[in-house]
Amino acid sequence: MKKISKIFAMALIALSVFCLASCGGNSGGGKTDGDVIEINYWHGNGAALETALEKIKANFEAKYEGKYKVNLVKYGGYDNLRDTLAAAISSGDTPTAAQTYPDHVALYLYGEALQSLDKYINNPEYGMSKEEQAQFIEGFWNEGTIYDAAGTRYALPFNKSTEVMFYNKTIFDKYGWSVPQTWDEVLAICEKYKQTEEYKTAEEKNKGVAYVLGYDSRPNLFITLTQQWGAEYTSFNEKGEGQFNAFGAVEKDTKISQEALGWFAKQNKAKNFATPIDFGAGQDGYCSTAFLNGQCIMTIGSSAGASHNNGENATIDKFVTGVASIPQHDLNNKQVIQQGTNISLFKCDDEEEELGGWLWLKYMVSYESALLWATETDYFAIRKDVMESQEYQDILNGIKRDQNGNEIARLEPTVGAKAKL
For residue 409, what pLDDT is reported? Predict the structure, then answer.
């Protein structure tokens, strides 16, 4: 299935005017008095993810026997991380490395702050072999090279997810409905559901605020429908510059995108589809609360948010949550968004600090670290060897083992059974 990468360079350029930045400064990176090299890593992960990150940090420091010390600096949320880094670039006080989205990378490149990773990856002493590079999931790996026509690498994949459709399996099973694969099939479910007592009850309890399907992210909705309807969201022009096809750069793509959004607006008016704002969750909210409240029976959101859509946590009528691929406009042109952050290295005046930053990033995506991250968080495996490991496959299949490796339990692969997506 094709995946869509988000590139918002031009939209973010207006955030700030930059001067060339170098890491170290007052950000905590560089050598300490005891010749320990400090690596300052900025991130936007929440508390649950920090636990796994701390383990990776401890393992890295032990691997290099105290030569490096990693300072994990948390900024609440990815937007705050981006804005803080933008300000740091302006003041010349960037960290050694940071967690980045593709649009963030484009912004930092405008400030000439990021270091190309090619010089390190291809180094015979501390780089990555071709065999090692081939272990990464191709789509995740390639996202790090989308920033210029030359394919320069500015990022490595880290925590990756996609969008999936969560659905009320209890209601689907009750009425014998098949899980829809296309939007037309979703609309057929909408018509059937609106005739049920469950829908009438949902309308009564929620003062008419009841739909059939919710879609968490409005930007993702725009990008996904644009691509599903056959248009290109972004591309490079003949000069090798990024452009927004669907925002007017290419007339054909703009018209197709408008058609797709017009179709969604029609379904929204018919109370078939909703976004968080329709449920009163605000522009940056989610549909998970509405889903658990019975205000919709299908919702599309991040695979990493599975636990938030667990019907066992419903306040009134508990239910089993099923998980499926998102519906498609055309099964011959399957499109689903690829999302989640990468990790990037900033230019440093201190060569040893910059090298340490590279080694830290390299360790973060190693087999050991990627396995730890994939098994202790709700994010995807970023490597083939991790994906094929028994530990990860056991989680996917709901298998529990004892200390001797013997299978002792097998859970149904649904969110209610706490299965990994």
Answer: 74
